[in-house]
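Figure 3 (text version): structure tokens given as input.
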């Protein structure tokens, strides 16, 4: 789930992705005993075409973009993974996508 704090952080990074599309995202699950995670490295694209914006738009998004789907601040970030690293039980394994 994207929280308002994450959304605000992403908004600040948009100029960075336009200048340098390299990006990294990380997902994890912390259980009671076992920690599992995956880091993905790749490229982030900033999409501003109306078709893509309308495809992703949800009614509740007006919380973040008062102008709706045509709000000039609204864009879509598209991440394409190129490689990654899997973490589990103090072991790691790198992989290509």
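Below: residues designed for each position.
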């Amino acid at each position: 789930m994207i929280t308002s704090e994450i959304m605000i952080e992403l908004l600040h990074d948009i100029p960075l992705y336009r200048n340098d599309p390299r990006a990294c995202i990380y997902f994890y699950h912390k259980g009671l005993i076992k920690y599992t995670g995956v880091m993905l490295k790749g490229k982030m694209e900033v999409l501003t075409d109306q078709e893509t914006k309308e495809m992703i738009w949800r009614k509740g998004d007006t919380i973040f973009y008062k102008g709706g789907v045509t709000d000039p601040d609204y864009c879509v970030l598209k991440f394409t993974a190129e490689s990654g690293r899997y973490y589990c039980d103090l072991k790691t394994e790198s992989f290509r996508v």
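The helical segments are 4-19, 50-56.
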